[in-house]
Every structure is written in structure tokens, then in C-alpha cells.
Design brief:
globular; four-stranded parallel beta sheet; 2 domains; Nucleotidyltransferase, domain 5; 16 helices
Length: 504
């Protein structure tokens, strides 16, 4: 029988085994769950001399409390990095690598988009790799500071104004480059000319993809994010409903820096033991001549909140008639088998429950049989389809919209979950319009729909790449597209399984 229910807000666990709802409250009052390395953050920073100077000034600033001119009850002030995380972060980086401003200005204004992004990425990639090889020091995380021009012209649909364009002669058509990708050629100049077209025209994604084989962890930051000024004109770039953006930036960048250094900020307080979640990712490989070609990857999340990304084989997974993706039995088996082995290696036993989250309906028998065989008889495997729904809205006769955590349970297999909405702790709704729900469907296996809803709501609070109350979608899907874009941004066939921090 259909019913409307409200789920309790999941709590997070921090230092001293204390549990609260808001990660900022928990970090400020009790500190992180697990410390990073006691010596603090060994940071490498790369950028122009101006970029590096801005970065050092910003790190120096967050050693002290950060608050905004018009503080909001929705966000506590930032007490200072060491006060929150208990480890030092020196304003002087362990390594500084400078890129000449003129050289960067010239590459980012090349008229051909593929060559423009490839050569700009190359400026950063080569210098980072050289530093790794030549310097006798370990770097926990590289901070890549980019001028806004790199952000502006380093994306797929960016166009450099004609008056600023720098012409290049060694170019190919994308179609010819794709042919060279699968056909051998005896001319080295052709191979060199085709190289930029093997990669996605996106600075952020291409840089991360090209550094995967070197096990490099990066955080890419725009110069304008670090400039200490009135931020009111940039409020649209930050979590909605928060005007004190300097505080927001301090919380967000500090948390992701701590996580990428090896610390664990928090985990779910009431986690169900022996549960493993897999976010299934599909991305079409536009570099391949076969339109069915796609990359499949699985993001495995343990009950502790740790994440590992596994890449499956490229194959004809895109089904053109249905506009859908499905694996073969063998590929499905190998993907889940790899995740199960990794889970056992980290936990010491196989999971009792395995939930596969995806935007697709797992209705292909061959694919599901592969998943089931890999999970084995002792692991209950459940396929859950999660997608943002724009067909149903719930209105509330009050100033603020529906509460976060409301759910309309349609039957024992389907429900709608409002993961966005009014949050009593924040005394506000972080959004600008009446929120849409998530459509939840158990499409394979057996599980209690209420358990599924509680799990999904909890998974909206495990985004370590920021420090907000909660996301609108679970972490299994939040980075599904992002991870897929990194894996398809260039040739990454030889990339080993890496932890989540390498992709975000």
C-alpha cells in the first residue's frame, strides 16, 4: 500500500566516536575520524608565479579562523586548518614548480581545440612527472593552480576569440586521427600529429587521465577561487543557500586536501556491517569508430565509506536500439569478481550484501547472470536503479519546501526519495526551486525498500571532495559521470585500480 514517510537524518561519526548530522559541526567539535600523516600535508604546487603566490597566501590565511562579513546560521565559521584537522599545513609547499606565464598564454590560445588542450595539459604533466623522477621527496597531493583563461578555453565548447587565436599548422581532422588510432602508420610525424586527438578536449579530465599511470593525486583550483575579495558576485559557483563563500571555500578545500593526504574526515555512524555498494558507470568512447564502443567501470564503496574505482574492458556495451548499456556475461563477471576480491582484501571476508547502483535498469539476463555468479551463493546481490525524477513534485503549505528525507513508497519495489529539501539543522533549504525527488527502483534481487531508501540517503553524505551537509544524489552516482569522463578522457587501458581520490 502506498505511503508517505519521513526518514531520520543519517548521522556521521567523527573523532572520539562522536556522531552528529553536519560534517562541519563534527569536524569543528571533535576533529576527523582518522588522522592523516602526523607531519601534515606534503604539498606540491604548480602554476605561474602569480598562481603559486596566491596559493601560498591562501594557505597562510586558513591557518587562522575564517569568517565572512555576513555570517549565516547555516554554516559555522572555519576555525583554522590545524585547529580542525589536527595536522599542520605549511604555507610553504614542499615543492614549487613554475610555468612561465607567456608559455601558458600561448598554448591556451591555440585555435585548434584538441591541440590547445593537449599542449596546455602537457605543460603541467611533464613538469609534475619530472619532479617525481628528479626530486627525492614524496608529495601527498599536487595543487594545480590555473588562471581563469585555462578554465575558460580548456573545455569542449570553448572558442578562443579570433583576435586572440594563435594559428598552428600541424593539425588533423578528428576523423583522420581516429583512423590512425586503429591503423598503423610508418610515419612518426603522423603519429605525433594524431596524438592530441586521442584525448578529450577538457583540461581537468585530460590532466587527471594522463597522470593516472603515475599514481598522482591532484587538486585543480582556479586562481579566482583563491583571491581574497568580496565573493558575492561568484555565489552561483558555490553551494546554493550559502552567502559566506570564503568560509565555504575554506571548509571545502581543506577537507578535500585532508582526505587526499590520506586522512578520513568521517564515516557513517550507523553503518550496516558487511555491506558493499557498487556504482556502475558507462561512458561511450567517442574516439572509437564503432558507435557501440563504451567504457564500463565500477566504483566500490565499503561500509566505511572508502572508495575504489575498477575499470572494465572496453567493448560494444552500448545497445543502440534501446539507447542503453549492458555488459556481456564474461565482462559482468570479471567486474564484480574484481570488486569482491578487493573487498575481501580490505575487510578480510566477502560482503553479505552487494548493492549495484546505476542509472540503467539491469534487465539483461546475460549481464545479471555474470553479476550473480561473481557474487556467489553467500552474498545477496541487489540491483537498484536510481535516477533524478522530473515527473513528481511534493508541495508544502509553508515558507520552505518539503523536508529532506521525505519518501513516497509506491510499492515494495519502487519509491521516490527527496534527498534535497528543508534541513532543520541549517534552518534553510539549500536550493532555489521546489526540489525534485530521486526515483528508486529495485530492478533485480530482493531487499526491503525502506532499507534501500535509508542507505541511499546516508550515501549522500560521503562526498569527501567537499564539506557540505549532504549531496542531492548518493556518492555511488555523484561521481559516476565524473569518473567515467576521466576514464574516457584518453588512453587509460593500462591504468591499475586506484582509490577514489585519484579521480575527483
Amino acid at each position: 500500500m502506498p505511503q508517505l514517510i519521513h526518514l531520520p537524518e543519517p548521522k556521521l561519526r567523527f573523532g572520539f566516536e562522536q556522531a552528529v548530522e553536519d560534517p562541519r559541526d563534527g569536524l569543528m567539535l571533535f576533529g576527523p575520524l582518522e588522522q592523516a600523516k602526523p607531519y601534515g600535508i606534503r604539498s606540491g604546487v604548480i602554476g605561474t608565479s602569480q598562481s603559486i603566490d596566491l596559493f601560498k597566501k591562501w594557505v597562510k590565511k586558513i591557518q587562522c579562523p575564517v569568517n565572512d562579513k555576513n555570517p549565516s546560521e547555516a554554516r559555522p565559521p572555519f576555525p583554522g586548518f590545524e585547529a580542525v584537522f589536527g595536522i599542520p599545513w605549511s604555507p610553504t609547499p614542499t615543492l614549487e614548480v613554475t610555468i612561465p606565464s607567456r608559455e601558458l598564454d600561448e598554448t591556451i590560445r591555440i585555435d585548434d581545440a584538441h591541440i590547445r588542450v593537449y599542449r596546455t595539459v602537457e605543460l603541467f604533466e611533464k613538469r609534475i612527472i619530472e619532479s617525481i623522477r628528479n626530486e627525492d621527496v614524496d608529495i601527498d597531493v599536487w595543487f594545480v593552480i590555473i588562471p581563469d583563461s585555462v578554465y575558460q578555453f580548456g573545455r569542449p565548447k570553448s572558442v578562443v576569440p579570433v583576435a586572440e587565436q594563435i594559428k598552428v599548422s600541424s593539425r588533423l581532422s578528428p576523423s583522420k586521427a581516429r583512423k590512425l588510432l586503429v591503423q598503423s602508420t610508418m610515419f612518426q610525424e603522423d603519429r605525433d600529429a594524431a596524438e592530441p586527438y586521442y584525448y578529450d578536449v577538457h583540461f581537468h579530465n585530460q590532466l587527471k587521465a594522463r597522470l593516472l599511470n603515475y599514481n598522482v593525486v591532484t587538486q585543480i583550483i582556479r586562481e579566482s577561487t583563491l583571491i581574497q575579495e568580496d565573493w558575492s558576485h561568484r555565489v552561483n559557483e558555490l553551494p546554493r543557500g550559502n552567502d559566506n563563500t570564503q568560509t565555504a571555500i575554506a571548509w571545502n578545500l581543506s577537507t578535500t586536501a585532508f582526505y587526499k593526504t590520506g586522512g578520513k574526515p568521517w564515516k557513517l555512524a550507523n553503518v550496516r556491517k558487511g555491506v558493499c555498494y557498487i556504482g556502475l558507470v558507462f561512458k561511450q568512447d567517442t574516439r572509437n569508430a564503432d558507435p557501440r564502443s563504451a567504457c564500463c567501470a565500477a566504483q566500490m564503496f565499503l561500509d566505511s565509506g572508502d572508495g575504489v574505482v575498477f575499470k572494465g574492458a572496453l567493448g560494444p556495451w552500448y545497445k543502440m536500439k534501446k539507447s542503453d548499456f549492458h555488459l556481456s556475461t564474461k565482462a559482468a563477471y570479471e567486474l564484480v569478481s574484481t570488486a569482491m576480491s578487493s573487498y575481501k582484501e580490505r575487510v578480510g571476508s566477502l560482503p553479505s550484501e552487494l548493492f549495484i547502483h546505476g542509472k540503467i535498469r539491469l534487465d539483461d539476463e546475460d549481464e545479471w547472470n555474470g553479476f550473480k555468479d561473481a557474487a556467489g551463493l553467500n552474498t545477496n546481490i541487489v540491483g537498484v536503479r536510481i535516477r533524478e525524477d522530473n515527473e513528481l513534485k511534493l508541495y508544502r503549505l509553508m515558507e520552505y519546501p518539503v523536508l529532506r528525507g521525505m519518501a513516497y513508497v509506491k510499492d515494495d519495489k519502487t519509491a521516490y526519495l527527496w534527498s534535497k529539501g528543508f534541513v532543520p539543522r541549517l534552518k534553510t533549504y539549500v536550493g532555489r526551486e521546489v526540489p525534485w525527488p530521486l526515483s528508486i527502483e529495485i530492478c533485480r534481487g530482493d531487499a526491503d525498500i525502506n532499507t534501500i531508501l535509508n542507505d541511499i540517503l546516508a550515501l549522500t553524505k560521503l562526498n569527501y571532495n567537499t564539506c557540505i551537509y549532504a549531496d542531492g544524489v548518493p556518492v555511488t552516482l555523484r561521481f559516476a559521470d565524473a569518473v567515467g569522463e576521466i576514464l574516457t578522457a584518453g588512453p587509460t587501458d593500462k591504468t591499475p585500480p586506484l582509490t577514489f581520490k585519484h579521480y575527483i
